[in-house]
Amino acid sequence: MIHLHYWPTPNGHKITLFLEETGLPYTVHPVNIGKGEQFAPDFLKIAPNNRMPAIVDDEPADGGEPISIFESGAILLYLAEKTGRFLGPDLRTRVEQTQWLMWQMGGLGPMLGQNHHFNRYAPEKIPYAIERYVKETNRLYGVLDRRLEGRPFIAGDYSIADMAAYPWVVPHEAQGQDLADFPNVRRWFEAIRTRPATERAYALGEQVNASGGEMTEEARRNLFGQTAKRD
User: Fold this and answer.
1) Are the C-beta atoms of 163 and 11 separated by less than 8 Å?
2) pLDDT of residue 223
3) So what family is this one in (predicted)?
4) Residue 199's closest CA among 170, 165, 220?
5) What one-character-per-residue DSSP string does 159-189 give?
6) What angle (nearest 5°) sits at the alpha carbon of residue 159, between those of residues 156 and 165?
7) CB 192 within 8 A of CB 160
8) Which residues of the chain have pLDDT under 50?
9) What CATH number has the domain spanning 91-193?
């Protein structure tokens, strides 16, 4: 059994996409990041960076003690290796998929996250910051669009690289992007959006966070106001 510590953010959706595709048994442990549950001592034992998602696998392949994993990219790699699914069977395909997974982890996610922050959550609208990250988002969409030219998915068949990138493209309108400007991304996006596993994963997210994630002052402090020494 996989124990998934989860909240329906782009990084959280990556893992439910994989689990729903494979049918691997899992149970969800909600981590309400707006209420600061990511700082609970028990959660920090498995996710020392106080970020979700994180998983605990009760049945690792080596038959030993449960394994805990944090960081969404590491979780996807672990689950792909565990199941033998959504990671290419040959060296060259795996290299392609892994480097695009790292592209998402190091570029697409962090830059689009800053776009979300300054566009949607910052108490003060700073034109320079908004322009900076909207433009960088646009550049990264262009990179993805060129990569998808003549390809149905990012690297070979549907893989963890696609699962990592897709949730960050879901809020494209809020990021100031029009998919009509990126026809290859739009085709790819629609192909993933209509997969039954994708529909199940996002329905689960709506169930877990039925309130819709109102940005209260408490949530703002928990999400954006922490230092090394938490109050």
Assistant:
1) no
2) 72
3) Belongs to the GST superfamily.
4) 170
5) -HHHHHHHHHHTTTTTTT--GGG-HHHHHHH
6) 110
7) no
8) none
9) 1.20.1050.10
